Automatic annotation (TrEMBL):
UniProt superkingdom: Eukaryota
Domain Major facilitator superfamily (MFS) profile: 26-472
Signal peptide start-end: none
Membrane-crossing segments per the record: 24-51, 63-81, 93-111, 117-138, 150-171, 177-198, 285-310, 330-352, 359-377, 383-406, 418-438, 450-469
Name by which UniProt lists this protein: Major facilitator superfamily (MFS) profile domain-containing protein
């Protein structure tokens, strides 16, 4: 293996250079991508209620503004996953940043309802790349305390939600929803501006046999961290221990990825075959449901916050809907519940590497279920905000753990595609939740929506029990070894 007579693997290289300035740069860029997604999604809590009286929309038309964004994310999550696994993580970032920033800015100038729906759908397509930022950052992090660093990364989502709530509080009452849409697109523009300064994933490069490029990136990382790479040369740690049937699937993937003219559809079919293979099918189906349920519950609680805030004032002292939108209590409630994600992140960081991913998720789901339960019946404003604060704290934390678990359980060749498909399935939950939280929750009625969210959280907890793998403290895998037994 070279002049030195031996080599080192990517995981050994990452452990040698440790976590330093190199990873901080990666963290900052990937975190910026998550801030952009969080802000674009959080603004849905404010834009719909503001546009409804201005354009005379029905409750269903208002909810459709959120639904089309999730529909776009469904398409984008799958598409960017395949693109990132086929052509590299950075190619996905570039395309997503262009679409998101352009459509986001144009949304501020939408002349009518239909144009706004189309543009918000395109914004959703771009935002569908958010999960690739997670996989990309994960592939730079050494094994020790990987869970804690992934929670730190997830903090950027919370920062984005708090920034959007603060921005809406400042902008909406005076300048209106168009300014909010335009300013919320700024983080996506910044990701486009700094695109050329970030490296490709060395783990992705290794799976493509581009070891020289991967080594160059690792050498730059070692220099930034003021560390040394191990002696020897970078080698691939791929080991093929598959069964004969699984070898056929693996060979199909390797062959298709090596051909210069391989189509995305061929890559997609091969990846889906792997995701539904004997080893992964149980995990894949359960993750699909968990992403659906978490997205449904998380965004449902966000939309319920604004809907119940408006409904509270309507039910207690009926006023014009447009006047309620200017009521500071709406922004205060959304801002307070956005802060709930901070203690949720702290809890996740504390227990994730101690008790494992599965038990962490169970704790979050049980606590979220209990805290949302009192809202089945009407509560006063203080109690409503308090229970929503607690429920969002734990449901958001469970979502974070799921988003950490999924990239860890899939090998590098399937990581972006596997998480992308799960994220796409999750966006179906996002498409449905506005119809529940906005459509069914309007008019002072909240019992049925809360019951539906409670049932979803309960089923999520049961799904976690059935997950076959625990990823705490385990190396990321590059190979697709289908002979490994379920734990």
């Amino acid at each position: 293996m070279g002049d030195e007579g031996f080599g080192y693997t990517l995981d050994e290289a990452l452990s040698a250079i440790g976590f330093g300035r190199f990873q901080v740069i990666v963290l900052a860029y990937s975190g910026l991508g998550w801030v952009a997604e969080a802000m674009e999604m959080m603004l849905l809590s404010f834009v719909g209620p503001a546009i409804q009286p201005e354009w005379g929309l029905s409750s269903n038309e208002e909810s459709l503004i959120s639904t089309v964004a999730f529909a776009g994310m469904l398409v984008g999550a799958y598409s960017w996953g395949v693109i990132s696994d086929t052509f590299g993580r950075k190619k996905g970032f570039l395309g997503a940043a262009i679409i998101t920033s352009l459509a986001g800015v144009l949304s501020a100038f939408a002349p009518n309802y239909i144009t706004l729906l189309i543009l918000r759908c395109f914004v959703g397509v771009g935002l569908g790349c958010g999960h690739v930022f997670t996989s990309w950052f994960l592939e730079f992090v050494p094994i020790p305390n990987r869970g804690a660093w992934m929670v730190v990364f997830s903090t950027f989502w919370t920062v984005g939600t708090i920034m959007e709530a603060s921005l809406a509080w400042w902008i909406m009452p005076t300048y209106g929803w168009r300014w909010l849409l335009g300013l919320s697109a700024v983080p996506s523009l910044v990701t486009l501006l700094f695109y050329g300064l970030v490296p490709e994933s060395p783990r992705y490069l290794c799976t493509r046999g581009r070891l020289a490029e991967a080594r160059h990136i690792l050498e730059n990382g070692a220099a930034l961290n003021q560390k040394q790479l191990p002696d020897g040369v970078l080698v691939s740690d791929h080991v093929n221990t598959s069964t004969s049937e699984d070898d056929s699937l693996e060979s199909t993937m390797l062959l298709s990825s090596m051909r210069s003219k391989t189509s995305i559809s061929q890559k997609s079919f091969s990846s889906i075959s792997m995701l539904l293979s004997t080893k992964f099918i149980r995990t894949t189906l359960l993750l699909w449901f968990l992403y659906f349920a978490n997205t449904f519950s998380y965004y449902g609680i966000i939309l319920l916050t604004s809907q119940l805030s408006v409904a509270q004032s309507e039910c207690d002292s009926p006023t014009l809907h447009s006047e309620n939108i200017k009521d500071p209590s709406l922004y205060v409630n959304v801002f307070i519940t956005s802060l709930a994600e901070l203690p949720g992140l702290g809890l996740a960081a504390f227990i994730l590497d101690r008790v494992g991913r599965k038990i962490s998720m169970e704790i979050m789901f049980v606590a979220g279920f209990v805290l949302l339960l009192p809202l089945i019946v009407h509560q006063n404003e203080v109690m409503t905000t308090g229970f929503l604060f607690g429920a969002r704290m734990f449901v958001s934390a469970s979502f974070i753990v799921v988003c950490i678990y999924a990239p860890e359980v899939y090998p590098t060749k399937l990581r972006a595609t596997g998480v992308g498909i799960a994220t796409a399935i999750g966006r179906i939950g996002g498409m449905v939740c506005p119809l529940i939280a906005v459509g069914m929750g309007s008019g002072c009625h909240q019992t049925l929506p809360v019951i539906l969210f409670e049932v979803t959280i309960l089923l999520s907890g049961l799904s976690v029990v059935c997950l076959p793998f625990e990823t705490k403290g385990k190396e990321l895998t590059d190979t697709i070894d289908l002979s490994v037994q379920v734990e």
